[in-house]
Amino acid sequence: MIDKKILRFYYITDENAGSFTPFEQVKTAIKGGASIIQYRNKFFSSEHMEELVLIREFCKNRDVPFLINDNIDLAAKIMADGVHLGQDDDSPETARKILGKDAVIGATVSNLEELACTDLSCCDYMGTGPVFPTSTKKNAKPVKGPAGFKQVADKAPVPVVAIGGITAENALLCFEHGASGIAVISFISRAENPADNAHRLGLACELALTQA
Ligand code: TZP
Ligand code: MG
Fold first, then answer.
1. What does the DSSP assignment read for 58-85?
2. Which residues are involved in binding 4-amino-2-methyl-5-(diphosphooxymethyl)pyrimidine (predicted)?
3. Of 41, 192, 194, 211, which one is least surrounded by beta carbons within 10 A?
């Protein structure tokens, strides 16, 4: 089992942030205090491999766990620290078999219905959202709000990361409603001042830690 403190400030890379590359995003997020990174690219191809390895090395040198979205084989190939799986991806059990006992494995569980039918016995955490409106994920489930998030988190057998529309202003609310961590994309990747947003979010997460 992971120390759930590593879930506190979870940054997910954005392929569609113009000239702000995933590697630059990761550097900015970690400087602001990100405690775990997920590489998410729905159109991954070999041309991204070089950057992916750079990100992995950057994270490794700073002891920040580095996960791959969706793709267990890619996670194994580049020796990532783990993988995050959606409902339509391979199972956490398969990920555990391939990546081993020390891998960090997460799954998306958007609501109580999914919670009832997802085997989380091989997972270290689950991600639940969108908590707030988001335009980053195209086919996102309905917004659940903090109260809806809490309903799921209260029943979860593993630590829960809140996702969707999270900012430095509403992060604390997520922690107060049972989140072990918050995950963001656009609050950093599409910010006017990404470094400032990352820093403010880092402070909010630190505050939540002191209040836990
Ligand atoms: N899953 C649920 S909402 C979401 C994902 C991947 C997108 C989160 O992005 P943002 O920009 O932090 O709202
Ligand atoms: Mg997925």
1. HHHHTT--EEEES-HHHHHHTT-SEEEE
2. 38-42, 69, 108, 137
3. 192
Q: Which ligand is nearest to the CA of 110?
A: 1
- Ligand 1 centre to CA of 187 (Å) is 10
Q: Does 13 carry a binding-site annotation?
A: no
How high is the ipTM of this complex? Answer: 0.98
Atom of ligand 1 nearest to the CA of 141: 2
Nearest to 69 by CA among 93, 48, 88, 41: 41
65-115 confidence digits (pLDDT tens): 999 999 999 999 999 999 999 999 999 999 999 999 999 999 999 999 999
Residue nearest to atom 6 of ligand 1 (CA): 137
Round to whole Å and give the CA distance between 56 and 31.
15
Cα end-to-end span (Å), the chain: 19
